[in-house]
Amino acid sequence: MEAKDHDIPTFVQRSARGQRRVTSQDSAQANAPDTAMSQSLRLRSVFLCIALTALTFYASYTSSSSASSQPKHKIQNASSAAQEILRQCASRHVAPGPAPGFRDRETSDRFENGTRPTLIKNATLWTGARNGTEVVYGDIFFDKGLIRGIGDIPEVLYANKDIYVVDAHGGWVTPGLVDLHSHLGLMSAPITAGALDYSSSHGPILPWLRTIDGFNTHDAALRIAVAGGVTSAQIVPGSEIVIGGQAFILKLRKTSQRTPTSMLVDPPFTLNDSAPDPNLPFRWRYLWQSCGESVRGYGNRMDTVWALRSAYAEARTVRDAQDAFCSKAESGLWDEIAGQSYPEDLRWEALVGVLRGKVKVSMQCSEAVDLDAMVRLSQEFRFPIATVQHAHEAYLVPDMLKLTYGDAPTIALSADNARSKRETYRGSEFASRILVDHGFSVALKSGHPESNSRYLLFEAQQAHYYGLPPHLALASVTSVPAAAVGLLHRLGVLREGADADVVLWDSHPLQLGATPRKVWIDGILQVGNDTDHVLIGPGKTGSAWRQPPQVPDFDAERQAAFAHEGLPPLGSKKLVAGRVAFRNVREVFLRESGETVGNASHFGMEDGDDAGVTHVIVDRGRVSCVGPACEGEGRNADAVIDLHGGAIVPGMMAFGSALGIEGIESEPSTGDGNQFDPLIQDVRRIVGDVGGLMKVEDALLFGTRNALLAHRAGVTYATTSFVKSPLFLRGKLIGGLSTTFRTGAPHALERTAIIKPVTALHVSIGRVPPSSFVPHAPSLSMQIATLRHLLLDGEDPRTPTGEWFKKAAEGTVPFVIDVSSADIMASLIRLKNEVEEKRGTYMRMVFSRATEAHLLAEEIGIILTPSRQYPWSWDDRRTLGGPPLTNSTALATLMKHGVTVGLGSWEVEHVRATRFDVGLAILESNNWINKRQAYELVSSNLEKLLDLEGWIGDYGDLVAYEGGSALDFTSKPVAIASPARELVEIL
Fold first, then answer.
1. Same domain, 746 and 797
2. Compositional bias of type Basic and acidic residues: which residue ranges (predicted)?
3. What is the mean pLDDT of residues 942-963?
4. Are the C-beta atoms of 61 and 332 separated by less than 8 Å?
5. Are both 674 and 619 inside the same structural domain?
6. Which domain holds residue 979?
């Protein structure tokens, strides 16, 4: 890939079928498999001659030496054994690749009878050709699981056929998305102990394990992933093992056989038979390796590299024994190997395949020290690395990675999954752009379920936002991952002869909220059946939706990230205590107040056309004038900022993550440390409180990178408790007393740093999923019984537990319960009624997480955390997916029932993307939610639910965004107006 040549997309107007192939793509992509096939054919011819010569010699030798003592059938048996030996020896050199004539096949090996041919008319086709720059306006026809024509389709292709016709009305069509890193089927949703098969505990080196042996076809996430346009995925084992086992490429379509094997793409011949067809080239196999912090359970980094070297040394011994044995067999020295068989060891055969170039290796490594070790390993044992996954520091050491044996690896990244570990602390959102500038192929991946595979495209969208050119962003989830696994001849591209994995989108795929209207896998419709009547894409009719978003310029930030090795300064450029004039403001939403400023009140001014472009004057952090008439007042301003059609909106609030109590999420030494759960272990007597109720205020950390990045992204406040993300860490009943603070404050003693020292009392109720690794989780009934005891004065009010549960029962402090199941919520509502009746009080109960709250839609406060719901556990299983799965979302359903709703986030590294989550919420509601309501979800609604209105209110921050709306990819924050601090901070 010529990554520095960020080509301007090529548009081909309805090219004729026979004339379309005039692009360089045909030599770079189409002919590459043919070259491999021709080399394979030549090799087979050579070894066939060798085999025939050796067989003739061996038959003659055997016949002459034993004719007097051996019957004839013994000679035939010896010849058969020799033939098998020579076949095994010859197979050492056969390269993997597509079978001869693969491009000319008439029917896909995955075709299912009864599937109707499909013609998509009037489409904008992103083909994947020309390094991702080719766009064809025309039609696409697929039949028998294969793409049969692109562009102007000759009617003879589909004449007299019962075809399914779809009019795309100019909509974008792409290949199905390919996810290089997924645990689909191994960590099946909802997660249960019986289907948790992503990792083994039987040692650091397990190349003989195979993910296909644990793949669960009933995983609810399969359908969810396809709803995001993902049609293929590399199913990998867990990263806790140095060599975790063999990965497999699967199509995510459930087949009529309903088996994992039938979902495989190009299953290796050795899967069920140790003797591959000698008339066909090998099919690629895949191996998964890990290093760094993930494999600490088996030792330190030196242990990891030694384990790898020892394993490959064993494999090299087996390989050399095979070569020595075959050298004698192919030379006809049969007496020297008499009584011996072909040297094999099932434990090491996958690694032998790596050394012979038949198995593609993916390595999950992040830090420079680990990446360097893997490069040395590849050089020592002379094998290429297909992909380096996670690779958070790869952008800092591109020249070193180019020293990998063979070709440079593809780098597979997540867009915003950094800083959760020490080894990922220097990860950068600009990594993908920096790497392609250094000539690397970059793929974006999900790491499902760490990030829901449904939103794989969102990874590419964010990479584009931070500088990856649009054609490479689309390639990063289609052609690049397909090429990385050696399947570009059938996946990740739209061209004749490729598999019919096709997605029709409701907008340009890089637009926030781009949703599949229809998804086909192997030509079989998976999403968008006309009888489903799911409404998709209303409000996306404007021409802007048909183009990639015009993203901001991040050149300076990208250069700073590289220059400072991932830790650029995050301070403000300037603090202005006087007057600041904002020009060319397209959209203004002021915080709710009792007065009108200029012509904008409350959240009152919607975005408009050019006539709505206006001026905003800010004096000592407070808006004093809004409207065209304010232009004169800006002439004497201390600073003038042109927003170029941008927006001024309320600062957003983070809720649900560990923001402010951990410097690095998985590094205990950077946070508060482990806390006691009173239902599992006794709290230390010296605390003097049986519930061990703690205050976040006492553990707050200021100036963490996650907090400062959130601040610079427009998330100026955070409310944080000790309740942890439930996937791996859940189990603590009492989540302590949360604190609301300012994310950009330098320290706790700064005047406006802590907004409200005690915001709410938090608890966590639910069944603990097996992935949480909580050894002795209390029963659900015990948890609720404990709450009843505490809320009805069960503990001495002179203790913190007794005092604050009494206040929660009286309604003087919000009582926030992290809960998912609608059934448990119903029990808690009944408990609330019981407490209120017995005490004569009114509780301010709020449900956070609240995955199944839409099933109740009771008028009780809800904070959806995270905003994009997923059936993680049994308690979360009844999600409402939104388009294209359902017409409504949980958020829209709750709001339609008059419920006050806020949005939160689990992951500290994702907090900075809060505004994109809000924009996505609008689009997934089919624009039923308006912008005013959207901003309320992460500002005033949270303030109401957490009783913060009098603490923030009119003194809340406003954030200025340059270039467009705050809720899409066109803008970036440039300033924060802070009435409480009486200044404007220029970022």
1. yes
2. 102-113
3. 93
4. yes
5. no
6. 570-650+956-987
Q: Are strands 134-143 and 118-126 parallel, antiparallel or unpaired?
A: antiparallel
Check if the beta carbon of residue 530 is closer than 8 Å to that of residue 204.
no
Of 245, 249, 276, residue with least CA distance to 263: 249
CA-to-CA dists, residue 678 to 615, 633, 722, 879, angstroms = 56, 60, 14, 31
Residue 966 sits in the same domain as residue 942: no
- DSSP 3-state of 39: helix
Task: Identify which of 1-5, 425-429, 671-675 has the greatest average pLDDT.
Answer: 425-429
Task: Indicate whether 628 and 692 sit together in one domain.
Answer: no
Give the CATH number for residue 976: 2.30.40
Q: Could you give the CA distance from residue 362 to residue 680 in angstroms, rounded to a whole number?
A: 40
Q: Side chain identity at 805, as an amino acid letter?
A: F
Distance CA 959, CA 650 (A): 6
The three-class DSSP label of residue 470 is helix
Task: Report the run of H or E that residue 311 belongs to, with start and end.
Answer: helix 301-330
Average pLDDT over residues 673-683: 80
Q: Specify the DSSP element, H or E, that contains 583.
A: strand 579-588
Q: How far is it, in rounded angstroms, from Cα 971 to Cα 958?
A: 15
**H helix or E strand, kind and range, residue 410:** strand 410-413
210: tokens are 């195979």
* CA–CA separation, 862 and 848 (whole Å): 6
Which has more pLDDT, 348 or 154? 348
CA distance 638 to 986: 12
Shared-domain flag, residues 903 and 983: no
Q: Is residue 132 part of a domain?
A: no
Q: How far apart are the first and last CA of the chain?
A: 36
Contacts of residue 393, Cβ cutoff 8 Å, sequence gap at least 6: 366, 367, 368, 371, 423, 426, 427, 566
CA distance 271 to 134: 37
CATH of the domain at 941: 3.20.20.140
- Between 305 and 679, whose confidence is greater? 305
In this predicted structure, what is the pLDDT of residue 277? Answer: 64
Smallest CA-to-CA distance from 360 within 275, 248, 445 is with: 248
pLDDT at 272: 78
Residue with the larger pLDDT of the pair 682 and 129 = 129
What is the pLDDT, as a whole number, of residue 2?
39
CA distance 139 to 843: 60
Angle, CA 521 vertex, CA 182 and CA 209 arms, to 5°: 35
Let me know whether 867 and 902 are in one domain. yes
- Helix/strand/coil for 370: helix
Indicate if the pLDDT at residue 407 is higher than 60.
Answer: yes
* Most distant CA pair in the chain, distance: 117
Residues 796 and 844 in one domain: yes
Q: Are residues 937 and 806 in the same domain?
A: yes
**Distance between CA atoms of 493 and 480, rounded to whole angstroms?**
10
**In sequence order, what are the residues at sequence separation of 6 or more whose Cβ sits closer than 8 angstroms to the Cβ of residue 791?**
805, 808, 809, 831, 835
- Cα three-residue angle 473-474-478, rounded to 5 degrees: 120
| Residue 716 counted as domain residue | yes
In angstroms, the CA 515 to CA 124 distance is 15
Q: Could you report the per-residue pLDDT of 854-876, keeping only the tens digit for each?
A: 999 888 999 999 988 899 989 99
Whether residue 915 contacts residue 650, with contact meaning beta carbons closer than 8 Å, is answered with no
pLDDT digits (tens, 9 = 90+) for 282-323: 899 999 999 999 999 999 999 999 999 999 999 999 999 999
Give domain status of residue 928, yes or no: yes
d(C-alpha 911, C-alpha 866), whole Å = 10
pLDDT band at 727 (very low <50, low <70, confident <90, very high): low
How sure is the predictor about 55, in pLDDT bands with cuts at 50, 70 and 90? very low
What's the pLDDT tens digit per position in 141-153?
Answer: 999 999 999 999 9
**Of 448, 549, 472, nearest in space to 507 by CA:** 549
Is residue 889 domain-resident?
A: yes
Question: How many domains does the chain contain in total?
Answer: 2
Region of 210 on the Ramachandran plot (φ > 0 left; ψ -120 to 50 alpha; else beta): beta
